[in-house]
Amino acid sequence: MIQNNLEIYYDTEADILEIFIGEPSECFFDEIDNDLFEGRDEKTNELKGFKIFNFRKRGGMKDIRIPLPANVKIEALD
Q1: pTM score, two decimals?
Q2: Second label for 21, Cα 20 to 30 Å away, from 1, 14, 66, 75?
Q3: Taking a C-beta distance cutoff of 8 angstroms, is the pair 38, 21 a contact?
């Protein structure tokens, strides 16, 4: 079974939400919607995360819909 980490970081000053999937790697980001960027691994093209600019202006979590890979495991860290 593949186990991935999901990390979420919000920069309040810049109003950017970042979501990272799996182990960190060198990525490129493409804009897939206004202020919504999808990050992919430079070597494998694997989906590695998203960046959402103007997060609060977009309505915060209520209006964000991002498809995640099926094998993402979310767990709390102690």
Answers
A1: 0.69
A2: 14
A3: no
Long-range contacts of 50-53 (CB under 8 A, 24+ apart): 50/17, 50/18, 50/19, 51/16, 51/17, 51/18, 51/19, 52/16, 52/17, 52/18, 52/19, 53/14, 53/15, 53/16
Assigned token pair, 31: 């804009």
- 3-state DSSP of 9-46: EEECCCCEEEEEECCCCCEEEEEEECCEEEEEECCCCC
C-alpha 68/C-alpha 52 separation (Å) is 15
Average pLDDT by stretches of 10, the chain with 78 residues: 72 91 90 91 92 85 57 47
**Whole-angstrom Cα distance, residue 37 to residue 53?**
8
